[in-house]
Design goal:
four-stranded antiparallel sheet; mainly beta; single chain; about 250 residues
Length: about 250
């Protein structure tokens, strides 16, 4: 294999057998349980990187089932997203979400999420399913239960257009890839969006969320003061590739 062959095939690692295929990445029947809660401004300030700003001390705790995803297969995900504002060099402000923590049970989307976009993915064991009248999400890190979310199943339908608009809001990620000497080689704020959204249903209902301290899955470091809202939705969508909006090493 010559140098040109290496450059042509260098999409992902390993070179001759990448952990994930090239995009686009389409998700069918992607199911979310999103519980929004209020935390302390001090907790947000400790984890939110500038130039992002949190207009309110809110956190969206998410449990996501992905039974049919291009190249990534069938897996489940759980983590925290902080509603934020980003103001670009032209002075335009966007409202979106910063993904602070993410845990899942499938190696290809862990590798692809970290290498392509900068999703902060770690290996764990999340679940999302229905038991009788309750939608239940859990997250275990090893044998330890880290998070439990519950919601009344399909209590009240939500407005279709408002939910689609919320899915169209941009997401922001901090992509970090180290140099071979351990110093940062890439340290970028990345913006991504979802597209081709087909919303199949969205509901709200009574909800509860419990977070437990863990050294390596510190979701409880953003403590729960008050549950604000809950959403259960099912949609087909495409995860678009990203763009760099701020280079910390420039």
């Amino acid at each position: 294999m010559n140098i040109d062959d290496v450059k042509r095939r260098a999409f992902a690692m390993p070179l001759t057998n990448p952990a994930f295929p090239p995009g686009p990445y389409r998700f069918i029947n992607r199911e979310y349980l999103i519980i929004t809660y209020r935390t302390t401004p001090e907790a947000i300030a400790r984890v939110l990187p500038a130039p992002l700003v949190a207009p309110e001390p809110l956190v969206k705790y998410e449990f996501i089932r992905m039974p049919d995803s291009t190249g990534f297969g069938d897996y489940t995900e759980s983590g925290q997203v902080i509603p934020v504002e980003f103001t670009n060099a032209q002075g335009q402000t966007e409202h979106g979400g910063y993904t602070h923590a993410m845990f899942l049970d499938d190696e290809p989307p862990i590798a692809g999420g970290r290498e392509l976009w900068g999703f902060p993915k770690k290996l764990a064991k999340p679940t999302l399913g229905v038991v009788a009248d309750t939608l239940i999400g859990t997250l275990d890190y090893g044998p330890i239960r880290v998070a439990t979310g519950t919601m009344g199943y399909k209590y009240q339908m939500l407005d279709h257009d408002r939910v689609v608009d919320s899915l169209l809001a941009p997401g922001f990620l901090l992509k970090i890839i180290p140099h071979v000497d351990g110093t940062p080689r890439i340290c970028e704020l990345v913006r991504y969006t979802l597209g081709d959204i087909v919303l199949k249903g969205a509901w709200t209902g009574p909800a509860a969320l419990e977070l437990h301290p863990h050294a390596l899955a510190p979701v409880a470091d953003l403590p729960i003061l008050e549950i604000v809202s809950a959403v259960h939705l099912i949609a087909d969508l495409t995860l678009e590739l990203g763009t760099v909006v701020h280079d910390y090493l420039a």
